[in-house]
């Protein structure tokens, strides 16, 4: 979440524009995060920590998942997350959306989001999930978009058009299509956009946490228990 919020602030106050123009100028005053609304498209174990941080700074949270989460039991986190982090009981979202249809997705996108965090897996159904119709909806609130999942979830041409046309406030993409981004690609010079080379997941604790999951799963395997972070062949992730 540090990546998402920092990138939003940098674009919002015009730091990247000021640096490119090599001008010393007063920057725009950023909006207060308190009272703003974040939409988390793909409310996974990791992204539940995003919700925790956003709630701590006064934002409301709208979650979106593929499958319905209508009961308290179904909203509990079944994946891995370090102690005292995330949303183990699934109680942080102010509203919870779900579904596979375009209409259900559009209802979520139209819920007044100042910030949209994209973190859904890439499947046949999510390829170019965010394209021209979706940008038109997000443009109503001039939503800031952060993609920390897979580049092909966003249609690149429509992302560029939305940014250059001031339809959305800005974007930060840690993943893109194509990846790695070739020299001379239009995304390098698109306004109000931050591009980073797939680094948002990195931290000094990353390897330690991976090994902890391995150890936990070896123990669960020895006891005949369900494993953490199992892939569903039906869902494709």
UniProtKB/TrEMBL annotation:
Q: Which Gene3D superfamilies match?
A: NAD(P)-binding Rossmann-like Domain
Which keywords annotate this record? NAD, Oxidoreductase
Single GO term (MF): oxidoreductase activity
Q: Which InterPro entries match?
A: D-isomer_DH_NAD-bd, NAD(P)-bd_dom_sf
Q: Which SUPFAM superfamilies match?
A: NAD(P)-binding Rossmann-fold domains (SSF51735)
**Pfam families linked:** 2-Hacid_dh_C
Span-the-membrane segments of this chain are: none
- In this chain the D-isomer specific 2-hydroxyacid dehydrogenase NAD-binding domain maps to 20-72, 105-200
Its name, as the record gives it, is: D-isomer specific 2-hydroxyacid dehydrogenase NAD-binding domain-containing protein
Which species is this UniProt entry from? Answer: Scytalidium lignicola
């Amino acid at each position: 979440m540090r990546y998402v919020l920092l990138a939003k602030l940098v674009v919002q106050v015009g730091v990247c524009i000021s640096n490119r123009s090599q001008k010393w100028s007063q920057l725009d005053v950023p909006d207060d995060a308190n009272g703003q609304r974040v939409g988390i498209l793909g409310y996974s174990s990791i992204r539940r920590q995003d919700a925790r941080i956003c709630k701590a700074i006064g934002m409301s949270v709208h979650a979106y998942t593929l499958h319905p989460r209508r009961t308290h039991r179904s909203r509990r986190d079944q994946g891995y997350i370090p102690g005292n982090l995330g949303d183990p009981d699934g109680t942080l979202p102010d509203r919870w959306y779900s579904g596979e249809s375009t209409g259900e997705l559009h209802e979520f996108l139209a819920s007044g989001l100042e910030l949209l965090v994209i973190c859904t897996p890439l499947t046949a159904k999510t390829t170019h999930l965010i394209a021209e119709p979706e940008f038109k909806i997000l443009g109503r609130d001039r939503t800031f978009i952060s993609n920390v999942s897979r580049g092909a979830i966003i249609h690149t041409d429509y992302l560029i058009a939305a940014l250059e046309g001031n339809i959305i406030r800005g974007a930060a993409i840690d993943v893109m299509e194509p990846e790695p981004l070739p020299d001379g690609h239009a995304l390098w010079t698109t306004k109000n956009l931050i591009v980073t080379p797939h680094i948002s997941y990195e931290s000094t604790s990353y390897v330690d946490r991976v090994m902890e999951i391995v150890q936990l799963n070896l123990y669960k395997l020895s006891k005949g228990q369900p494993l953490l972070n199992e892939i569903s062949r039906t869902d494709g992730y």
